[in-house]
């Protein structure tokens, strides 16, 4: 193996090595970390971030960013919960509508898709920077959540719905299955479909992609719509697990999603990244969060540590990108 090939292989294994060392350090200082109960709990929590981070990966590969996923998660969860409570009155129109659990879930996902679609539309047709557009949507979606819930949690959603977030299938938590399905579909899309190749092309060089005939605006709009839908899936998982839709749900989730994407090796400049890398990044963030709690680290210091991890990951990404140039 040549030196260049060895260096490239080592770069690919960096997240896996980091995860191994992180698990080893936490296991040394906490005897509760390696218990099956704790590991399954970590996997449930990671499942939500995986769903959000997969959507974020598509956005970042296309050279964008989505800061609104946490608020979209909260709004989708609130909408789903309200329609599960034996029907609900839509605050904006005064219309009373009831839904089955499946119908409520589909409406919640559709709401996430609509908000994501608005993000993409504003970015592509009004040429607003993704950071600004999604920052505005972060505030709008949070406000919509407060209006929808009137600032109060929506609880007692039924055992059938609770199974989604707390149930098991073939010895594995259902949220893990859902995250696995999202991952497989995303990997297939990015590797085997024309749409996936278009996302990479737009992130690599948008002008060249446009000149080659790719409908850039349409692809980018669909990418943000998918990000919103996957955030809504995460919102449904959180709402189901808690048996309650909290108005402040999802606060800070966008940071964990971005951290997972960056740690997983996706370039913030776009055009480069892998879904499986993001999944590994989400596992690292989940294990880090769990380990800091088990070790009794102050919540304030937890934020500092996660911020430093993101900063280090970005510095490594930039240095590797510079080496390739």
TrEMBL record:
It is a multi-pass membrane protein. The chain crosses the membrane at residues 16-34, 46-65, 72-97, 103-123, 130-148, 168-188, 221-239, 275-294. It holds the Pfam family BPD_transp_2. Keywords: Cell membrane, Membrane, Transmembrane, Transmembrane helix. Its main location: membrane. InterPro entries: ABC_transp_permease. It is found in: Cell membrane. This is Ribose ABC transporter permease. The gene is rbsC.
């Amino acid at each position: 193996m040549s030196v260049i090939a060895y260096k490239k292989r080592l770069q690919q294994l960096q997240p896996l090595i980091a995860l191994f060392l992180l698990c080893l350090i936490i296991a040394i200082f906490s005897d509760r970390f390696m218990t099956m109960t704790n590991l399954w709990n970590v996997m449930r929590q990671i499942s939500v971030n995986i769903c959000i981070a997969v959507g974020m990966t598509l956005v970042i590969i296309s050279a964008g960013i989505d800061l609104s996923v946490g608020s979209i998660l909260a709004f989708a969860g609130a909408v789903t919960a309200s329609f599960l409570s034996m029907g609900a009155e839509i605050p904006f129109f005064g219309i009373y509508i009831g839904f089955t659990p499946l119908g409520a879930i589909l409406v919640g996902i559709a709401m996430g898709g609509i908000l994501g679609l608005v993000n993409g539309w504003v970015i592509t047709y009004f040429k607003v920077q993704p950071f600004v557009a999604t920052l505005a949507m972060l505030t709008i979606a949070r406000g919509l959540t407060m209006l929808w819930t009137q600032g109060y949690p929506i609880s007692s959603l039924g055992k059938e719905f609770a199974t989604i977030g707390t149930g098991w299938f073939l010895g594995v938590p259902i949220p893990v299955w859902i995250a696995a399905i999202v991952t497989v579909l995303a990997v297939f899309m990015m590797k085997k479909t024309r749409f996936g190749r278009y996302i990479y092309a737009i992130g690599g060089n948008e002008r060249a992609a446009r000149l080659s005939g790719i409908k850039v605006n349409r692809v980018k709009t669909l990418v943000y719509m998918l990000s919103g839908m996957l955030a809504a899936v995460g919102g449904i998982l959180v709402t189901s697990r808690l048996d309650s839709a909290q108005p402040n749900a999802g606060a800070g989730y966008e940071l964990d999603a971005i951290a997972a994407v960056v740690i997983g090796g996706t370039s913030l400049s776009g055009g480069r990244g892998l879904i499986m890398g993001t999944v590994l990044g989400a596992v690292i963030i989940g294990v880090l969060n769990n380990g800091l709690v088990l070790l009794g680290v102050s919540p304030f210091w937890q934020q500092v540590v996660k911020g430093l991890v993101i900063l280090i990951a970005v510095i490594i990404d930039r240095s590797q990108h510079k080496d390739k140039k």
